[in-house]
Design a protein that fits this description.
The protein contains 16 helices and 15 strands. It is of the alpha+beta class. Helix 2 runs antiparallel to helix 16 and helix 4 packs antiparallel against helix 6. It binds iron/sulfur cluster (SF4) (2 copies).
Length: 522
Amino acid sequence: MNTHTAPDTSDVERVAVEPVNAKRNRQPLYAPRRKIFPKRAEGRFRRFKWIVMLVTLGIYYLAPWIRWDRGPYAPDQAILVDLASRRFFFFFIEIWPQEFYYVAGLLVMAGFGLFLVTSAVGRAWCGYACPQTVWVDLFLVVERAIEGDRNARMKLDASPWSAEKLRKRLLKHIVWLMIGVATGGAWIFYFSDAPTLLVSLFTGTAPAVAYVTVAILASTTYVLGGLMREQVCTYMCPWPRIQGAMLDENSLVVTYNDWRGEQRSRHAKKAQAQGQPVGDCVDCNACVAVCPMGIDIRDGQQMECITCALCIDACDGVMDKLGKPRGLIAYATLSEYSANMTLATDGGTTAVQPARVRNEDGSFIAAVRHFNWRVVFRPRVLFYATVWVAIGIAILIHLSLRERLELNVVHDRNPQYVLESNGSIRNGYTLRILNMVPAPRQVTLTMQGLDGATMRIPELSKDDGRQFVIDAGPDAATSLKVFVTRSAGTAAADGFLFMIEDSEHKDRAIYKAAFNSPGETK
Ligand code: SF4
Ligand code: SF4
């Protein structure tokens, strides 16, 4: 027998609340991929992207082949990371390992450059210059050339396997792989003399690491650019997450101006005849068809949007056909968009009313805000630009003033001094002279201070003296053993200077050395 009595719940208030992760609403962390077949876009942004693609790919593939005459003692490749001799050559600039701070400065500049571009024009880097975007564009060019534009590719994809489908798919993947190999190949040319390495690659005499690097880069280019495409931007790249912190209400982003586009209608005339409000969007989906990320910008700002602006081109084309002003989808700031939305919705109290932003003749009312270039030059952007330029100028000044002669001295510690039979005291030093120009030169080594003391350099001469001329090899470090002897009875001194000087190049380096004597070792 059931003795359970239902409780009286009339005093228990039911709270209207919905858990944010309600089981019925949960989405899988990784949604299965839906294939995207971007349609070819045409317009000013597409043309600009073609130019950026040609310039960036041209630089990447051709830069290692540019020659730069540095004389007989240095490589003649304009851009070279010479791992063997630990040098970085960039046209007339040569960077030694101890000058790595230049590279650090360039990395800081790259970071500020990214902040600058993002705060000024949103994710322009992602949309135009990111290697992933550029290579995906290139792979899409190949795909379109072999399989056709969107409709033909969709048809081919849905069709059963046939000889023709196999031929097209094979050809496409072979060309993609060839692009991958060329990409990996170009990369290794930055690390060795390109013409020599190319020959050794084809004759099978290149080092194993060269083949392994080409194989790794070829496969990653093929997989990321050909197979994964938009998935890399959505799931792998951290930049979409970081950039949110850099945008503000005055950053330019690709925006669907629903204040003039809604209510969208495929049958605008009919809807208007029925007295319904009609916006400029004819719901043709041209903007979605060209999107390489497969999204609908009309749904608002989305992390997936790389701001490539191809949807702007597509929509501008539609507006041209309809005889309406361009810019239904446009680069816009959040502040101008919000101001126009406020106008169109009467401060957010109604749905979008296109009539509220238009005059009788269809033109926009004067209160509608349009893009003004002044927002790009706001304090935050100017701050980033100033820091970027300041770092660049500091690097250039430092580069132009840097010494190309360096002197390092190691004082012998064992023994710290030698007391000779005549009462004089001898200290030993190892001098390392760095000649950082790609030409041999003679440098004069002199002692300053420690009056009465003399140097002897057994490698050069049996004589003692206070000045020697040393041959410094091109782009190399020269090590010398130097013995300094102080006669008995001369006054002790705290230290003295080794100075090397190349009067021809006006380079000079000085090192303050200590001199050890009995009872006063340092
Ligand atoms: S929504 Fe427009 S700007 Fe954004 S990725 Fe797609 S086409 Fe490019
Ligand atoms: S291309 Fe323009 S008109 Fe066509 S659906 Fe997109 S926003 Fe609307």
